[in-house]
Amino acid sequence: MTTTFLFDLAIAVAAALLFSLLFYKLRLPMIVGQLVAGMVVGPFGLGLIRDTSAIDFLSTLGIILLLFVIGLELDPRHLKTVGSKAIVLATVEFLVAFTVGVLSGLAAGWNLGTSLFLGSVLGLSSTAIVAKIVADRTHEHGESLAATIMMVMVVEDLVAVFLLFLTPELASGSQVQASAFLIVTGKAGFLFLATFGFSRYLGPRIINRVSQYEIEVGEISFLLALSFGFLFGVLSDYLGFSPGIGALLAGFFLPVKHSRYVREKILPLKEAFIVFFFLSMGALIDVGAALSVGLPLALILGGAIFGKFVGGSLGARLAKTGTPLLIGSILVPRGEFSLVLAKAGVDSALVSSQLYPVAGLAVLATALASPIIERLLHSSRSES
Question: What is the predicted pLDDT for the residue at 78?
């Protein structure tokens, strides 16, 4: 069992390295290369990795660690200073992408519930991919635009958290009873209060105490940082929510000073978290199941690209910020939250298992489309 797991891990890492280099040479997001690597070597690809239990374990581990890091990188103080421009932009682009996603799902012959879930999945841009694009383009477009786009990502992340909270309750029946809604609200409130209380009061004291032994025992700070994410990942899972939500909240509520300390300890593994997350998610994508949707799949993928591009451009125009078409192209990629939400819907039997591979191909198509659209816009500006 151990040998098989290590062999699968070696194959996955080698594939990730190969496809990351290939996509880098093609000037495409390396994250997408890692997703493709998982698809190729996974049980639905070449079948080099067949142990889905190990893949599921890596997927869950990747979700917890990735969302914990995202939570650490979000500054709660920014919520007080989120400008009206970012809110307008986020609202418009999400609603447009959501609407187009719902319509494409209905056009594919899916029922209203699945189509609404598809709209939610396709309404969320990838924080990881967009952040990478923004970091690479800051010197070209200025820090103001970068700050606005990242605030849009914060708003979308909050929407994703709400949807993940709601998913288990929706899965319990076709109609959400008032009492059941109060129960899930109470659970969500308890998780919020528990993570807030720990991260704001107990967590910082533990960090201060443990940091005194950092010179003698260097590993203790690293282990402490990981324990926070896993502790509340377990609590979140116990309450019926995605384990990644508890990890995200634990990182989000830590005071800025302490979140920076924790982030520094696990930053060397941040890229590994992202690699394993997209590898495992890619390995779970059944391309054959997605292709069984038939011709409407092209409509869904086209709608995923069109919805975000138009929504982002329209939102930027209404918010009177940046270059509308450029912002639209930057917001096109879907990623981690789309995959997490799609997997949560499938795992809870809320939607057909067909939704997840379709969401995976949407992540692939949109992440590839974004740099292509940006290049076309750049060449058209150069010619004019």
Answer: 60
